[in-house]
Write a structure and sequence with these properties.
This is Integral membrane protein, Mpv17/PMP22 family. The protein is mainly alpha-helical. It has helices spanning 4-31, 40-67, 89-102, 113-142, 147-165, 169-179, 185-192, 194-203. It has 2 domains: 4-72 and 112-203, no CATH class; 77-109, no CATH class. α1 (4-31) runs parallel beside α7 and α4 (113-142) runs antiparallel to α5.
């Protein structure tokens, strides 16, 4: 069975490719009525960008879940199927520790709404800034733009992309942190973000 990261790689890459092709079609029909041909370099640039960004977001979502575990509308299974006849208390102790962690207990952690709000707020702030900066930097480096120009483009493009992101990301984050398991969050974000991917592709002047 492929690992969660491998599955995320494959699914997110397919979704990013679809988003870029849709963006190219939209951009083509806005500018010309001639027959459409795929801009292969632009497609490859966006796919490579997606491949580079997937592990970063995968680790980010794992980090958020580790620091603020649990979700509002489901609980992860905490039952361990392996125990020993010599010491059956191992199972009970293990379950108690897992339950305590999932409920946000221990180490000063809290659970429920607190963990949800922390993940939501961090995703809208640190997560958004990280993703926008990485998008502008990576997509322009892949297009061959000089590093000095990339810095200027980050300053120029950050505000309009952030405003656009805030129009869709809060709803995606609310769903991710209430009903979507952590290993599926990057793919879920990519699926919900096909339209966002179209926007980014158009922004990158496909």
């Amino acid at each position: 069975m492929p690992s969660p990261l491998t599955t995320t790689f494959i699914q997110s890459t397919i979704l990013n490719a679809i988003a870029n092709i849709l963006a190219q079609i939209i951009d083509h029909h806005r500018k010309s009525k001639s027959s459409f041909t795929i801009n292969t370099p632009a497609l490859l640039q966006f796919i490579i960008y997606g491949i580079l960004i997937v592990p970063i977001n995968f680790i980010w979502q794992r980090y958020l879940e580790d620091k603020f575990p649990g979700a509002l509308l489901f609980r992860r299974s905490t039952t361990t199927t392996i125990t020993t006849a010599a010491n059956p208390n191992i199972l009970l102790n293990d379950n108690n520790k897992r339950k305590k962690k999932n409920e946000g207990g221990g180490g000063g952690r809290r659970g429920g709404w607190y963990n949800f709000l922390m993940k939501f707020l961090l995703d809208q702030t640190i997560g958004s800034v990280m993703n926008i900066v990485l998008f502008v930097v990576l997509i322009n480096l892949l297009k061959g733009v000089d590093v000095s120009q990339v810095v200027d483009l980050v300053l120029l493009d950050f505000k309009p992309i952030m405003i656009a992101r805030l129009k869709y990301r809060p709803l995606v984050s609310m769903l991710m942190y209430t009903v979507v398991p952590v290993d599926r969050r990057v793919v879920f974000g990519s699926a919900c973000g096909v339209i966002w991917g179209v926007y980014l592709s158009l922004y990158a002047v496909v």
